[in-house]
Design goal:
The chain has 483 residues and is mostly helical. The chain folds into three domains: 66 residues; 151 residues; 173 residues. Strands 1-2 form a two-stranded antiparallel ribbon. Strand 1 and strand 2 form a beta hairpin. Helix 4 packs antiparallel against helix 5, helix 7 packs antiparallel against helix 8 and helix 8 packs antiparallel against helix 9. Keywords: Membrane, Transmembrane, Transmembrane helix.
Length: 483
C-alpha cells in the first residue's frame, strides 16, 4: 500500500508539474502577444506624432513666408499707396514687327532715292530753222516721295509704341493691337496696301520717276509686297483668321498661277496703252504697242475666266470638283459644266504659252517697247507728263531731220543730216519687260501643275471607285443574311 501511494504521489506530482508548465507557457504567450500589441500601439503613436510634427513644421514655414512677404511689402510701400501684385502680366509685343520694320526700311530707301532727283532740270531746245535757243524747265515731279514718307512714319510710330510699353504708362490705355479688338491695325494695313497700289502705279508708270534709278523701281514694288505680306499675317490663321492669301489662291493646284497671270496681264495691258499714247506724240513706228495691248487683253480675259471657274461660278451642282475631290454647291444661270483640271484648262494653258512666247520674242527684241526695264529714252528729257505731249515733242512730220556732229581722224568736226524716221525710237522705261516674262512663266507653270493635279485626281478617283465596290460587295453579302 505504501509503495502504491508513493507511486501515486509521484504520478500526481508529475501531472501537477505538467499542468504548471502549460500554465506558464500560456502565460508566456499572453505576455508575448501583449508586448506585440504594445509595440504596435507605440509605433502608431510614433507615426501620428511624426505626422503632427511635419504638419506643424509646414504650417510654421508657410506662416514664416507670409510674414516675410508682408514685411517686405510693408518696407517697400508707403502709407497711402496701393500694393501691386508681385506677378505682372507679360508684355504682349506685336508679332508682325518684322513686317513693319521691312516696310519702314524700304519706304525710307524709296524716299531717299526720289528726293535726290532735282525738282527742276534746265535744258535747251533748238528751234527748227532758227539759230536761237529757248530755255525750258522740266519738272521732274519729285512729289511721289510722299508715298515713302507716309509708309515710313506709320510703321516707325507702331514700332516705337510697341517697344516702349514697359516705359510709358499711357501706352497701356492705347494698345495698337487691341484697339477695336485689333481691327484698327487691320484698317491701317489695308490703307497702306491701297496706298502703295496707287504709289506703284504712279512711280513705275511708263517713263515714270522709277526709271531714273533702279532702287526707286525695286523699292516701290518691294514696299507694296511687304504691305500685302503684313496684312496677310494679320488676317491669316495666326491672328484674326478672317481671310488669307493662301485661302484665296489655294482652292486648287493651278489657281495661284492663274492669279499671277491675271495680275501680270493687267500690268501689260495698262503699260501698253500708256506706251501707245506716249510714243504716238513723236513716232509713228508703234505697231508693237497695239500687239501688246491685244495680247494683254486676251490673256487677262482667259485668266479671269479660269479664276471664276476655280470658284465654281460656271459649275453645275451635279459635277464634282476635280482637284479637291468634293462636290460643288454653287450654281448660276450659266451652268457650263467646266471645271478646273479639265482638258479645256490644259488647252488654254498651251494656247497662252504659244502667244506669250511670240509676245516675249516681239516685245523684248532689239528696239522693242519692252526690250529693257529702263528704256532707251534720254534721261535728261524726263518729265512728269506736262511737256512730253507738248508741240515741241511732235516730230512726226515727214521732213523731220536731225543734225549729227562727229569728229574725224584728223580732229576736224563734221556734221550730216539724218531723217528722224531712221533714228532709233525713244522708248520710255516700263513694267512691260517683267510683265511679259511673268506671264510666260506663269502659263508654263499652269500646264505643269495641271499634270500634277490630274495624276492626283486619277489616284483619288481610283481609291473612291475601290471603296465603292467594297461597299457594294459588303451590302450584297449582308442582304441574304438579313432575309
Amino acid at each position: 500500500m505504501s509503495s502504491y501511494r508513493y507511486d501515486d504521489i509521484i504520478v500526481r506530482r508529475h501531472t501537477h508539474s505538467r499542468t504548471n508548465n502549460r500554465r506558464i507557457t500560456i502565460d508566456n504567450e499572453k505576455d508575448d502577444s501583449d508586448a506585440v500589441n504594445d509595440s504596435k500601439v507605440a509605433i502608431t503613436k510614433t507615426k501620428k506624432t511624426t505626422t503632427d510634427a511635419v504638419a506643424t513644421t509646414t504650417t510654421d514655414a508657410v506662416a514664416t513666408t507670409a510674414a516675410a512677404v508682408t514685411t517686405a511689402a510693408d518696407e517697400t510701400t508707403t502709407p497711402g499707396e496701393i500694393v501691386e501684385d508681385e506677378i505682372k502680366e507679360p508684355i504682349e509685343y506685336n508679332p508682325r514687327w518684322m513686317g513693319y520694320t521691312l516696310i519702314a526700311c524700304c519706304s525710307l530707301l524709296n524716299y531717299i532715292c526720289i528726293s535726290t532727283i532735282p525738282s527742276e532740270r534746265t535744258s535747251r531746245d533748238a528751234l527748227v530753222g532758227d539759230d536761237s535757243t529757248t530755255r525750258r524747265n522740266d519738272r521732274l515731279g519729285a512729289w511721289p516721295a510722299v508715298f515713302g514718307v507716309i509708309t515710313f512714319l506709320i510703321p516707325a510710330l507702331i514700332l516705337i509704341q510697341d517697344r516702349s510699353q514697359s516705359q510709358f504708362t499711357f501706352i497701356k490705355q492705347f494698345h495698337y493691337t487691341k484697339v477695336k479688338q485689333g481691327y484698327f491695325e487691320g484698317a491701317i494695313l489695308l490703307f497702306m496696301v491701297l496706298w502703295w497700289i496707287i504709289g506703284a502705279a504712279i512711280i513705275t508708270k511708263p517713263g515714270g520717276i522709277a526709271y531714273q534709278a533702279s532702287n526707286i523701281y525695286y523699292s516701290s514694288w518691294m514696299t507694296l509686297f511687304l504691305c500685302i505680306y503684313t496684312l496677310n499675317l494679320w488676317s491669316g490663321p495666326s491672328d484674326k483668321d478672317i481671310l488669307s492669301v493662301n485661302e484665296i489662291v489655294g482652292v486648287s493646284y493651278t489657281l495661284k498661277s492663274w492669279w499671277i497671270l491675271f495680275l501680270s496681264s493687267c500690268v501689260v495691258f495698262g503699260c501698253s496703252i500708256h506706251l501707245h499714247i506716249r510714243i504716238s506724240y513723236y513716232s509713228d513706228n508703234q505697231p508693237d504697242t497695239l500687239f501688246a495691248i491685244t495680247l494683254g487683253l486676251v490673256s487677262m480675259i482667259i485668266s479671269l475666266f479660269h479664276i471664276l471657274v476655280h470658284y465654281n461660278v460656271f459649275t453645275d451642282n451635279n459635277n464634282n470638283n476635280n482637284t479637291t475631290g468634293g462636290s460643288t454647291s454653287t450654281s448660276t444661270m450659266m451652268s457650263m459644266n467646266i471645271q478646273e483640271g479639265g482638258l479645256f484648262e490644259l488647252l488654254c494653258s498651251f494656247f497662252l504659252i504659244l502667244i506669250w512666247i511670240i509676245g516675249v520674242a516681239i516685245l523684248t527684241a532689239d528696239n522693242g517697247i519692252g526690250a529693257t526695264m529702263e528704256g532707251s529714252e534720254c534721261k535728261t528729257d524726263f518729265s512728269s507728263g506736262e511737256t512730253w505731249n507738248s508741240p515741241s515733242y511732235s516730230t512726226t512730220d515727214s521732213n523731220c531731220t536731225i543734225i549729227l556732229y562727229y569728229e574725224n581722224s584728223q580732229g576736224l568736226v563734221s556734221n550730216y543730216t539724218v531723217p528722224c524716221a531712221e533714228l532709233p525710237r525713244d522708248i520710255p522705261g516700263s513694267n512691260l519687260y517683267y510683265g511679259a516674262w511673268i506671264c510666260l512663266l506663269s502659263s508654263i507653270d499652269i500646264s505643269l501643275k495641271w499634270k500634277a493635279a490630274q495624276a492626283l485626281r486619277f489616284a483619288s478617283q481610283s481609291q473612291t471607285h475601290v471603296a465603292a465596290q467594297e461597299t457594294t460587295t459588303t451590302t450584297g453579302v449582308q442582304q441574304p443574311a438579313g432575309q
